Amino acid sequence: MRRVQLSAAEARRVALAAQGFALDRPAGKPDVRHFRRVLETLGLLQLDYVNVLTPAHFLILWSRLGAYDHAQLERYFYARGECIEQWAHEASILPASSWPLLEHRRQAFVMHKRNPLRTLRNRKAYLANVLKQVQRDGAVTAGDLPPEPGPKRNPGDWHRSIPRWALEYHFARGSLLVRRRLPNFQRVFDLPERILPAEHLAQSMPHEDAQRELLRKAAIAFGVATMRDLADYYRMSARDAAPLLRDLVEDRCLTEVQVEGWKETAYLSSTARFPRSIRGASLLSPFDPVVWFRPRAERLFGFHYRIEIYVPAAKRRWGYYVLPFRVGDRIVARVDLKADRHAGQLQVLNAHAETGTNRDSDCQYLATELHALKDWLGLEGLWVSRNNDFAKQLAGFVQ
CA dihedral in degrees (59, 62, 67, 68; nearest 10)? Predict the structure, then answer.
């Protein structure tokens, strides 16, 4: 029987199951099989290298797998030919099989009008020479390329060198791929044919077919979602998504459903599962697909979430780097975390409970998760600021 209505609780469980949270964390040490399963489940991992705690995409895997080996993950990303970096949601890690699905974006890439490469008189020759150097000498970083003067910088400008702009141009066009990341997260670029398996390089897909498949993958990853939710997953417009979603409904990949409390029509994936409950607890990265589209997070969980990294300190409500905390199928708290590596300490700078939660049990779950995160990050201590009643209660469980 095809579902046409879902309760709010069912929608939460369907969404979390689609994101891998119906599975317990591995009992043993996670390995490549687990990394592959997470990436296939999500379709992509949004990259973000803000390192106040640990880069956000590392947290996405932590939330689902618990403690894993960073070096092993890096080898999976860059040394096995199974993954690629591409512009997808934002800059992302994807299965290498996604290469043909993004061909239309690489072909459509146009240099931004403010790109300083536009100021180069010899731009075409310079860009061609960059490719020739990679072809001749192998993988490069921006520092390996001959320097080229760029436009004058204004105070406070975020600086990219002309060689870096050139490499990123070729990356966006698909002429170069990221071979690996250095310990400082700098990208090393090489030719696609030296990185990607030939089977993926040889594939091509028409624009509309690729977009339809991206929407289908988004629907699998979300379980149940609105049109705008699905369009946002791989960053396409709602206008482009609407007719393709109708195709997917006709093909029975999706079913239109009504979800309790949702104003918009929702689409239920044919792969969706309906677990009776979601177990466990986990901190979530600010860029986890469960919460990255803020209207969806509010619709699913009643959780109003904003990143305050760029908000002046005096105007922040929750903190600088705030992570949602999930228990079962609810988001029950948010915590502002910092890894103080000099002091060897995981710091909880702020902690706030959501309305209507069980504070005693939630504090116990959160304390357990924080201790596990501390150990995984290689820190010795765990400190909680006692700046409100919930934080004081959490501090008591942490000791």
Answer: -80
Rounding to the nearest 10 degrees, give the CA dihedral for residues 71, 324, 305, 64. 50
Residue 3 pairs with which residues in a beta bridge?
Answer: none
CA dist 229 → 274, 324, 329 (Å): 20, 19, 19
How many beta carbons lie within 10 A of that of residue 15, not counting itself?
25
- Lookup: tokens for 116: 């300083």
* Mean pLDDT in residue range 108-127: 91
pLDDT tens string 13-26: 999 999 999 999 99
Question: Are 210 and 102 spatial neighbours (Cβ–Cβ below 8 Å)?
Answer: yes
Q: Which two tokens stand for residue 8?
A: 């709010």
Q: Are strands 322-327 and 330-340 parallel, antiparallel or unpaired?
A: antiparallel
Count other Cβ atoms within 10 Å, centred on residue 203.
12
Helix or strand or coil: residue 172? helix
The predicted structure's pLDDT at residue 154: 57
Q: How confident is the model at residue 168 (pLDDT cuts 50, 70, 90)?
A: very high
The string of DSSP letters for 93-106 reads: EEEGGGGGGGHHHH
- DSSP β-ladder status, 381-384 and 345-353: parallel
CA–CA separation, 31 vs 25, rounded Å?
Answer: 12
pLDDT over threshold 90, residue 291: yes
Rg (alpha carbons) of the chain, rounded to whole number: 22
- The residues, any chain, with a CB within 8 Å of residue 294's CB and separated by 6 or more, are 304, 305, 306
Overall average pLDDT of the 140-168 stretch: 79
Name the token pair of 294: 């803020």
Q: What percent of the chain has pLDDT over 70?
A: 97
With a CB cutoff of 8 Å and minimum separation 6, the contacts of 186 are 141, 142
Task: Answer yes or no: is pLDDT of 157 > 60.
Answer: no
DSSP 313: G
Residue 107's pLDDT band (boundaries 50, 70, 90)? Answer: very high
Helices assigned H by DSSP within 153-281: 162-173, 198-201, 207-222, 227-233, 238-250
For residue 150, the model assigns a pLDDT of 65
Quick one: 141 exposed, middle or buried, by C-beta within 10 A (0-12, 13-18, 19+)?
middle
The tally of CA atoms less than 13 A away on the side-chain side of residue 177 is: 22
User: Can you tell me the distance from the alpha carbon of 4 to that of 266, in angstroms, rounded to the nearest whole number?
Assistant: 10
